[in-house]
Amino acid sequence: xxxxxxxxxxxxxxxxxxxxxxxxxxxxxxxxxxxxxxxxxxxxxxxxxxxxxxxxxxxxxxxxxxxxxxxxxxxxxxxxxxxxxxxxxxxxxxxxxxxxxxxxxxxxxxxxxxxxxxxxxxxxxxxxxxxxxxxxxxxxxxxxxxxxxxxxxxxxxxxxxxxxxxxxxxxxxxxxxxxxxxxxxxxxxxxxxxxxxxxxxxxxxxxxxxxxxxxxxxxxxxxxxxxxxxxxxxxxxxxxxxxxxxxxxxxxxxxxxxxxxxxxxxxx
Length: 268
Known about the structure:
The chain is α+β, with helices and mostly antiparallel strands. The protein is built from 7 helices and 16 strands. The protein has one domain (about 1-255): Nitrilase/N-carbamoyl-D-aminoacid amidohydrolase (4-Layer Sandwich). The chain has helices at about 10-25, 45-50, 60-70, 125-130, 155-165, 180-195, 245-255; strands at about 1-5, 30-35, 75-85, 90-95, 105-110, 115, 120-125, 135-140, 145, 170, 200, 205-210, 215, 220, 230, 240. Strands 8-9-10-11-14-15 form a 6-stranded mixed β-sheet, covered by helices on one side. A 4-stranded mixed β-sheet has the order 2-3-4-5. Strand 10 (about 170), helix 6 and strand 11 form a beta-alpha-beta unit.
């Protein structure tokens, strides 16, 4: 996983991320994950005009596709901000790029972050982002991968649906705020791993961004028993590696067969 402090435009974002992707590939990694908003962290509307391109034209997407092909690795772009094609708002979209450089899966963030955080900041993603409406699971050479983005982690029913679909791993790329990251980041990721019996892969944005935003960092990998098996303890750009034993998924689900014990409940 690659932790980033993404700049405010796609060309600079590619220059920032590419050396870290190469570093990850040099470790022998075959699946490399980037965080949310990997191509653009820019909340200032007056500076955002003209920076949001279509998926097919985005400089960052094109650059990562070429890089994946060159390095013969799969790259999950945790998300890119691209034109939605549905209305004036953009899409916050995960892309899984195969070692041939082709897009193998897409997921548009379902739950949008509209909140006023304890540090006095106000966030209204729905003003500029168009929500998705479809959960996505994709097959990889290593197992089934469920896709989610950041604020999705607060909605356990999405993760249960992914678990019921037989995922072995769930990606949770994020750009968490510092107050919510400090309080909730690790505990929620561990909870989602325990509930689903799946590996949670959570690459994060971290540090101070050009638009004045600060993100939490602290990228994590959590095993199906809820144990953190790899972590970064800071908010700086870095590479985090982990080796997954997918037999742990079977062991966790056999020990706690909770995915088979759902019961219908009446209205409250």
